[in-house]
Amino acid sequence: MSDGIRPVGARERLGPLGRLLFDTEARPIWDHDTDTLSRPLRRLRHRYRDFAEVHLSCQGLAADRDPDFVDIPELFLRAAREGFGTELMPPPWGTLQITAVWRGLLLPSVLKAEELCAADGGLGLALLAHELGIAPLFVSGDLKAYFYWLGRIYREIRAGEPAMAAFAITEPGAGSDVEDTEGARSARLGCFYERVAGGFRISGRKVFITNGAVARWVTLFAAQKGCGVETWTCFLLDKSMAGFEVGRHERKMGQRAADASELILDEVFVPDDRVVGEVGAGWAISRNVLNFSRPVVGAMALGIARGAFEHAARFCNETRLANRPLSDYQDVQLTLADMLMKLSAMRATVWQSTRYRLPFGAAGAIAKVFCADTSWEVCRTAMTLLGDHGYVHSASVEKAARDARLTQIYEGTNQINRLAIFESQTGAEFGSDCAGCASCASCASDASGASGASGADCGSGGECGPASPVQYKIKTDRRGQSE
Length: 483
Ligand SMILES: Cc1cc2nc3c(=O)[nH]c(=O)nc-3n(C[C@H](O)[C@H](O)[C@H](O)COP(=O)(O)OP(=O)(O)OC[C@H]3O[C@@H](n4cnc5c(N)ncnc54)[C@H](O)[C@@H]3O)c2cc1C
Fold this sequence. Notes:
CATH class of the largest domain: Mainly Alpha
Bound molecules: flavin-adenine dinucleotide
Number of strands: 10
Radius of gyration: 25 Å
Distance between the termini: 65 Å
Helix content: 40-55%
Structural class: alpha+beta
CATH architecture of the largest domain: Up-down Bundle
CATH topology of the largest domain: Butyryl-CoA Dehydrogenase, subunit A, domain 3
């Protein structure tokens, strides 16, 4: 090929100003994306990747076969020594870099999640679940919880103790239910508190709690005995409390290095000062935690997919078919390009979700659903490219597919996240923006129906209604009657 029709050669034929307008250097998109970050974030992204390559990559497959292969608290302490476990408070208490978060509080967290999970999804989850565990102390807005309790946990970590945290909402009869507004109203809860002198007594079970067995601290949600989610309250428990035990460990399909355990509470006494936020504010806190954690799950899914893509790309470069590398075949090129395109779209979605002035429901759920579904596709494509190697454990892409599958389930299944997107944007992009009033024709005629007319006046003087001037047809059956 003549130099004139190569991208690099083409650039040389442009005038000096034209050469400044585009970059033809062959560099990974990872590098191009890193260039768009502020200097502190660029440094942080490199440090996360270096840590993950040294401490996670080499142990991931073994930890997948035997979850006890890696001492998770020890790994956590190694990460903490790098400052990667205490990022929710600035120095001297923690390692939050104000300069790194000023454009988006969550951006460092998603950078970390991508790098850890690109190296290994299971070990990545084990390290990241700690942040989920302490998130209620931060997002509750409760200053005592933040400065006193989080400060104390960080002091322990700085002193070299593996003071990991876990987040416990799921119960045998309440999973999606407590993450979705409709479901929450009828959730069959099984973890309750009773008020007693000086505090609360909590009994019940939590299931599938990541790091449940290794965490020292647990932010746990329980309802008042005999009541529903409206009384849900967040408590900070520690495992040394009498009556608090770890039950069954789940044998999982993917992300096996991270433990998922049952927690059993038998009349555990929890003092008053362990309530996070207000009594009854549990559901609001858990929603806020999910708004913060869903972009991170999106980034984990992205990291897992990137790991699978990098294996597949290497395989296609190194494997020869009829004396040519696989990557010389055009259908393989199309497939690899398609995978890279999906990774780019995932990263754009995740980063965008963290760049809003404040996180909001739809942004996090969109990042989570899109990346989890796309990651599953990318990992399966990687398996296809590797053929028989895609099916064997040592090549690690079958593991990536198993790891990716879990991102479609936790932090609310993808169906529940789709409902969250709809709910977050109702009134803005879906449904009527009138909350139901007494004066407009559409609400008044519907007063007995499903639009939930509240009888209050929305102030439109009866003019509110669909913003669109188009009157859509009412669906009719074959005889022309409305259905
Ligand atoms: C490995 C692992 C780790 C986990 N870690 C944690 C943790 O650390 N802390 C924690 O609290 N929880 C954790 N979970 C729990 C996880 O968040 C829940 O499993 C998840 O939210 C789904 O809830 P569920 O299992 O009760 O499913 P269900 O609610 O029983 O859902 C079953 C099916 O019904 C669908 N469904 C339910 N409601 C609706 C609806 N309204 N519309 C349409 N479809 C619906 C769901 O999408 C799903 O397909 C973990 C789970 C796993 C598997």
